[in-house]
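Request: When convenient, would you put together a sequence paired with its structure tokens?
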Amino acid sequence: MKKVLILALALLMLVSSVAFAAGSQEAAATGKKDYRIAVVPKLTSIAWFQRMEVGVKEYAKQTGIDAFYTGPSEGDGALQAQAIEDLISQGVDAICVVPFSTSALEPVLKKAREAGIVVISHEASGMTNIDYDIEAFDNAEYGRHFMETLGKATGGKGEYLFTVGSLTSESHNQWVDAAKELQLQKFPQMKQYGDKIETADNQSTAYNKVKEALTANPNIAAIQGSAMPDVAGAALAVEELGLAGKVKIAGTSLVSVAGKYVKNGTIEMISFWDPALAGKAMVELAVRVLDGEKIGTGLDLGVPGYDKLTLNGKVLYGQAWIDVTKANVDDPAYAF
């Protein structure tokens, strides 16, 4: 079964590459190569967004379009806004952005659009000053599926923690808010402990804050992490306190970051979407908008998971999340 899955994923990537190569030929005829498209992540210094950069570079190589990666090395809305100001001054054709703080970016993205720049966001479905937002999946469904896992793992009892990169990180808050709604409906004997914990997308911060909470409250039975490094930091805290197996953990991460904790059972499950594919999807969507193509439900961007999109307002939803447990953590298809 693993061999079939690996072959299928390889075939999907091959088809994607062929599609982009064909797009490169079209670019010569339509002027697409003249487009200059910037991708601005929340921060450039963590594995998640380094993986996204791989996708952007692959896209540029495959299509000949000048797509490039830039942004702050730390999670800071003001620094991200300044990076976008610089791009406006450069006169880029499109900006693809994963906002650290949606509220911090609304004014500068409004300025970008007024300058005629196409704006595509990711992990920011509630933003106003964009052409489109593209999501790997429905955020509420994604958040609920973590609570389903934790509810079953704890027997539906005990207190739990939520971590988010920032209280202004829109997708993170959508995930945990939907998870809490499910908990109230399905696991009434569970209870959130304290407020959402902000980690600034930093593994050390997640470790320190989770350890502090676990030390203060012995009734914590579960942790749901949102930022990519959160569950790895939480797992280290749990292990150091001798609580592995007693405190259940699930959340967004990558195998390269949290895989060892999945293997040893400290983490029940991690889920993710491939940031490289998300990067490609953002840039390809920007190209389609620049080309004047009609954007709607059924749109195929030629990227696995983003090949049958659903449009709701200005938000496009794909079908691109992956769950990894002890059963499939060693699958080479997820080794990033």
